[in-house]
Amino acid sequence: MMVGSPKSDPPPHPPRVSLERSRDSCPHLPDFPNRFRTSSEVEEVDENFDFGRLRGLPMTPPTPPGATLPAPPRAGPMPFPSPSRLPRVTSVTACVAIFFFFGFRVRQLDCAQFRVLGSDHPITAVVGEDVVLPCHLSPRLNAKNMEVRWFRSKFSVYVHLYHSGQDHYSSQMPEYQERTEFLKEGISVGNLSLRILRTRLSDEGQYQCLIKDGNFYEETTLELKVAVSGSSPLLSLKDYKDGGIRVGCRATGWYPKPEMLWRDLDGHQLPSFTESDSQDQNGFFEVEKSIVIQKTARRNVSCSIRNTRLAQEKDSTIYISDPIFPKNSPWMAASFATLAACLASLVVFSLFVLRLRAQHTAELEKRNVEIRERDMEIQKQAGELRWRNTIVPVEEVHVTLDADTAHPQLILSAGGKSVRRGDTRQAMPDNPERYDTYHCVLGQERFVSGRYFWEVDVGTVEGGVWAMGVAKESMKRKGWINPAPQDGILALFHCGGKYWALTFPDHTALVLTQMPRTIRVYLDFEGQKVAFFNVDNQDLLFTFPLTQLSGETIRPWFRVGPNAELNLKSPPSPPRVPSVEEPLLPSCFFLQNLSTGGRAPHMPESGT
Predict the structure, then answer these.
(1) With a threshold of 0.70, does the pTM exceed it?
(2) How does it sit in the membrane (predicted)?
(3) Which of 101, 216, 411, 538 is deepest in the core (most CB within 10 A)?
């Protein structure tokens, strides 16, 4: 729609024409009183203006309401005044009168500077593509210094605004942010078109293009329609109906609602049996129609779907062979019964699978909760450990192996600082302190209070089998031993490159970020804990509570299997103790309550 000549005060726009603006653009107009503002007032002045004043003649007083005018004389010719009595009309007076008579109308023609033109038909855009809304001036003036406002229903909230030579986005509609482009390359010739990027369904509707130059403005209205072609028709056999086969045709993702037709091989339209349509959450249409095909009719049918706005059409064809049509057979009822039984079995099986899945999910969630609780406990213990490090000093211990407790097959170094497992048993006195079945050895040091640490070099052989930790001095030395807290042993176990904490009833597998070469054993009577650290990266490996060994004398404990050698170290400097501000987080997660397959492998004792 195109708007023509200026109109007066249409809210919320500014006044169309003011005399001051007209006087600026038309300087030849005289200086009229300030009360003359609009074209309607100007026309009223033109019609009631008394030109007698311009000629200097006295004005005839107006006739009072209800008074009668005197009748003119009935006889005799009307006397014509002598030339001496006629007023003198100079050329200047006549020109002024003529100028006043036509001045205001000429002013309006001179000041109507341009018209705004758009499109006389709707603009069609494809969803997801760009579209240009045309708008230009007539005549094609340079609009660089004009204001160009594209808006929809509200003048103040715009689609795009250009003025003072720049784009403005402060009050832009949110749905158009970063999706509009004012085409400035044509602004010098009056082309004020707007490009909308990545068109959406919500962009459909009317748009106003308003051009303002000073107090003068014009506008035009355009209509944008959007469309999109969705999927091709999907044909499917639904069921048997009235002795024939019901065939369905379904298509999704179309806008606006498309036309769907069934046709035979000759292109003749066929009536539909059922039809339905719906819109998804994004506004796109899903259309479905079905038709019943009889055995005696033509088997070739096609379903076509058409977008009327884009003039695009998609179709699909199906041919139904004779064996598919229903037959009057006694096996039909049995077939349906079998099919129903199969469906029922499938439903029961699906419910069973869903139930198992729900149980498995619940078990996983339970284990995740346990892992989180263990992590929280470890962080709590780490925080308490940092606090105790600031209160009670840690004493470095140079552990020496006690040869009187070593299993006869273990070989100790001369200084008692390393141990490995030999191939045969040595001749050793069978004193009460010596282990005779398990390949174990104790350290000479005994602890009852305080805070201590020692370090053990475990080497880099992943195939070695060993265990280390602490044990109560009164533990059993003869016969079978269960290396667990309830039997007085708190230790880590290594086999085949994997680590376990010897917890009860199941061992706890450790997942490490780095394989340790040196392990620090930290014994804290004050905090009632035994902790194991990876010296290489200062990671906390595991923490045991010391409560089960409470009141006992505690000694370092070692167990050596095949291909393993343990070396006791004396650190040259005090250990690095994390400060209160530095977080101490575990480097591994703990998998509790492992199944039998997750239990640590049994360490061979003899005969290897």
Answers:
(1) no
(2) Single-pass type I membrane protein
(3) 216
